[in-house]
Amino acid sequence: MSASASTFLIFSCFALIFATASATDHIVGANKGWNPGMNYTLWANNQTFVVGDLISFRYQKTQYNVFEVNQTGYDNCTTEGAIGNWSSGKDFIPLNKSQRYYFICGNGQCYNGMKVSVLVQALPPGPSPSASSNGTSSNSPTPMVLEKRFVGLRVLVITFASIWLTELGLFELLMK
Fold first, then answer.
1. How many C-alpha atoms does 101 have within 13 Å on its Cβ side?
2. What is the rounded CA–CA span in Å between residue 34 and residue 143?
3. How many CA atoms lie within 13 A of 159 on its CB side?
4. Residue 153 CB partners (closer than 8 Å, separation 6+)
5. Its pTM surpasses 0.70
6. Under 8 Å between Cβ of 52 and 92
7. Name one GO molecular function term (predicted).
8. Could you list the pLDDT tens digit for every one of the 176 residues in the chain?
9. Where is 6: in which H helix or E strand?
């Protein structure tokens, strides 16, 4: 593989990582993590989840785990028909659809409060061209939503910048 091809590959990977980094990572339970006896409903109600965000669970991997289940599994604390499961102790789960997600601990701790349900909202549509040109849109997206919309543009700019730097031979100078 040529030096410019490897550089392009490296910067493309960097661009993808950068794009993912702009999503919000919601750490379940904040600094208290995924543990029994917590009120995760209260925690979830104080969060705003949008498509593209991550939900992450931090816990002792020898003691707990995470299962994504349907509403019946959530209500009954059962993992039967689970949609997904994780057990690394530091799990990052992408929230890729606008829907309600249900997560439980599958080792019996669900009965001790280790369950959380989150509603993921779609990104609101951008302002119409006429509304953005006159600046009078009353339902314009929040800055956080606008930031998420420009992720693709960031990836494109970083990719082209990496190609340009490589072609000029500047990348090697920057990496020294």
1. 24
2. 30
3. 13
4. none
5. no
6. no
7. electron transfer activity
8. 555 555 554 554 444 444 444 689 999 999 999 999 999 999 999 999 999 999 999 999 999 999 999 999 999 999 999 999 999 999 999 999 999 999 999 999 999 999 999 999 998 776 665 554 555 444 444 444 444 444 444 444 454 455 555 566 654 554 44
9. helix 3-21
Phi/psi for 87 (5° steps) reads -150, 25
Tokens of 147: 């930031």
Q: Which domains does the chain have, with CATH numbers?
A: 3-124+145-175 (2.60.40.420)
How many angstroms separate the CA atoms of 153 and 135, rounded?
Answer: 22
Neighbouring CB atoms inside 10 A of 151's CB total 17
β-strand pairing of 115-121 with 49-50: parallel
C-alpha–C-alpha distance, residues 55 and 141, integer Å: 22
